[in-house]
Amino acid sequence: MERVFNVAPPPAEDVCLSQLPSQSQIWQSQQCWLPGQVNGITTTNGQDNNTVQQRLENYLSSQQLPPEYDEDNDRSVVVSAPTGSGKTVVMELAVVRLLQSRQQQKQDHDNTLPPSRVVYMAPMKALVTERYLDWRQRLTPLGLSCAEVTGDTDHDDLHVIRNSQLILTTPEKWDYLTRRWRDHASLMQAVSLLLIDEVHVLSDEGRGPTLEAVVSRMKTIRATRPTTDTSTRTTPPLRFVAVSATIPNVEDVAAWLSDEHGPAVSHKLEENLRPVKLRRVVMGYNCRDSWSEFRFDLSLNYRLASVIATYSDNKPTLVFVSTRKGTQSTASTLSREVRLVRDAGHRQLLTAVANGLRDNKLREVVMCGVGYHHAGVDMCDRRQVEELFVTGQLPVLISTSTLAMGVNLPAHLVVIKSTSQYVGGAYEEYSTAQLLQMTGRAGRPQFDTHATAVIMTKMQYKYCPGITFSTRESQSETN
Questions:
Q1: pLDDT surpasses 50 at 374
Q2: Which of 267, 212, 259, 211 is nearest to 239 (CA)?
Q3: Which residue has the higher pLDDT, 284 or 155?
Q4: Phi, psi of 402 (to 5 degrees)
């Protein structure tokens, strides 16, 4: 469901703050918060929509989540909520709150206030690009300039930042840009709001330290900003809004993002507030003693067709594998094992798109209704495959597990093909957070009332706590 700010474009070049929607208006337009559809349609649990909204509003109010309910609250906030339940809305509300606050300050004082900027950080370039395209389309009419600053962008980064109010980037890129921040201090000191998407990457051995360093550095940079409050002679602290679907220790993250007023406000939405009811199924398979992890993973390619036939309901299916080569081999096997093309018209459409793809192997499987997606695929090819999948024309998409933190491609069925991954020269099991990220992609709020996530693993791992988390149903299958 597309979120739209129902306001007219401003006549001036600057941000038209008087025409910004109020936070309550944004809340009313963000029906993706609700566990069901809107406009009189019954929710998944059979309750009237107004009843669910009132229950959810009361729940959030009791937990003191500030951005939606307190127009004067500039405290930092950490939100853990199921995929699709509205975490992006929390960040959007914080942006509007900052703009409204700036407008009030100008009215109360003068128009000489230094500029304020917002930085959005996400761990995956694909997610940064998706958020940039979305916000550019909806916020540019308000006069809010957006800029994507990643390794994939070809421009003078500092020049772009200087001429933008909302900068979207990765922790690694922002770490690089802020290491010599004193060379352009006023530019970095202008950041008043830092939005951190997928904050659970703190636990990642590779990316976590970078994010920690960036946050600490930004606190220091903000503290050196010249005072803007003539009455208190202090600079308002940098506000953080951090969101995630899987972070278990929201209180610890809130303490980490503390300022002189105390820790950030933390909030955790439980699974029962998920917009689409999710059933998780764990399927265990025998693995012979002589088999390597690679051989076992390969054997699952031939089990995949039956899983999709059983649980997909002929709706889009997203399959996660651990390697790039795995996406290609899985797609190739599946394209031979199952018929996914619906009719002649569907075949004609797939063929037309496939003929425009640069990747020969991808072209072959797309003609059969299967696609694959990983960071090595040409950007134009990726966009074509994503569009096919989102529109329901590509029945199955095979992706590396990193897509779980990447672009928003929800599916009716999610399959995790093997729970082991190759890291640092050895195989290890996915963490619970990684499994939650992947299974969280199941369910399309605008289309589904329920969804399914199937985890395919070794028989001996079937009942491991990390795999059986919150599992509603468990099934077993042997070779």
A1: yes
A2: 259
A3: 284
A4: -65, -20
Confidence of residue 446 (pLDDT cuts 50, 70, 90): confident
* Cβ–Cβ under 8 Å, residues 470 and 280: yes
Render pLDDT for 234-274 as a digit per residue (tens, 0 to 9).
567 799 999 998 888 899 999 999 887 778 888 888 777 77
Reading phi first (left if > 0) and then psi (alpha if -120 to 50, else beta), residue 198 is in: left
Evaluate if residue 57 carries a pLDDT over 80: no
Phi/psi region, residue 20 (left: phi>0; alpha: psi -120 to 50; beta: rest), is beta
Domain-ending residue, one of 273, 293, 312: 273
Number of domains within the chain:
2
Tokens representing residue 244 in the block: 């995630």
The stretch 222-228 carries a mean pLDDT of 75
Beta-carbon contacts of residue 413 (< 8 Å; ≥ 6 apart): 308, 311, 312, 313, 315, 316, 317, 318, 442, 451, 452, 453, 454
- Structural domain that includes position 352: 277-476
Contacts 24+ apart (CB under 8 A), 10-19: 10/141, 10/142, 10/143, 12/143, 13/143, 14/143, 15/99, 15/142, 15/143, 15/144, 15/165, 16/142, 16/143, 17/99, 17/100, 17/102, 17/103, 18/103, 19/142
- Cβ count within 10 A of residue 463: 13
Chain-centre distance of CA 220, in angstroms?
A: 28
Tokens of 220: 């220091």
Which one, of 238, 244, 240, lies nearest residue 197 by Cα? 244
Assigned domain for 64 exists: yes
The rounded distance, in Å, linking the Cα atoms of 392 and 389 is 5
pLDDT per residue over 263-276, tens digit each? 888 888 877 777 78
223 belongs to a structural domain: yes
Do 114 and 159 lie in one domain? The reply is: yes
Distance between CA atoms of 455 and 414, rounded to whole angstroms? 8
Whether the Cβ atoms of residue 45 and residue 35 lie closer than 8 Å to each other: yes
Evaluate whether 321 touches 417 at the Cβ level (below 8 Å): yes
